[in-house]
Amino acid sequence: MKKIISIIGARPQFIKAKPVIDEFKKKKIGHLLVHTGQHYDYEMSKVFFEELGIDEPDYNLGVGSHMPGRQTGIMTERIETVLSKEAPGLVMVYGDTNSTLAGALAAAKLAIPVAHVEAGLRSFDRAMPEEINRVLTDHVSEVLFCPTRTAVRNLAAEGVKSGVFLTGDTMYDAILRSIKSAARRSGVLPDLGLEPKGYILATIHRQSNADCISNLRKIFAAFARIKEGIVLPLHPRTGANLKRYGIKIPKNVMAMKPVGYLDMLMLEKNARLIMTDSGGVQKESYWLEVPCVTLRTETEWVETVVSGWNVLAGCDTRRIVRSLKRLRPGRARGHPYGDGNAAKRIVNILKRRYSL
What we know:
This protein is an alpha/beta fold.
């Protein structure tokens, strides 16, 4: 088979792709990495490559920030140019970002098989850009690697049954490989003057929150009512909109630039509780056994809610505050996201299917 190309562009994808890239290297499978440049500054991109030990991408398309439709269009055009030049036998896409959809569309239009890592997730909210990206990507993919049994059932309900494999979650692979290194290398807690279990960690980046003035106001009103200290690595878009809308950051909130992967793991592991609208952070809080309040009314990661470790609070100020008081999780049971060998399964399936 010809070489495989992975398309990535945003920080969650760097984490998801790393274990798969490592397996390609171990098995000496030809592989190229294309970075769309969806996330492009140091805190959102390069630090992840450094900390995760990912080689420099073979192509960096430098797309940057644009309106969603324009961004996806520019990505698709530039990815198509790379694929036409390199003529890969398979394109790998990860997650649910605009980079995911652009990579899948460019490959499908050129009749190149697409493999989707983290297939089958559904929030059932078509107002979410990520949901549109997931659905469209799944329906043009030839191979679909599902992190959970729920994801397999979601695809079956849409009539997608061929080429579907339950593999587990590569982000779980990544956290198992990185948590000891994070504890050894990260100095984020002493640097910020934080004590273990002495703070709440918060993240806000979803378009439905970061770009909505009413939701931002309600979330920060909730933060102001919480007596504990809140640590907030601030997504650039969220920070810009706080300034644009004149929303003040409460005194109990320690806002800072985005942090790298290792520092984020340590902030998560040592938090008393996490508040987030991030799917990846929901899972990481579950794996690290830290209670989570999700600032959305739905989640793709239903297993975290069923277990009692995650509560969906939406953006309602009172509900957010009440959730902090009422959240009483039991211990996480079972391994709904696999056993930490998802990447190995994915590459073994590809080897058998495509005679690599």
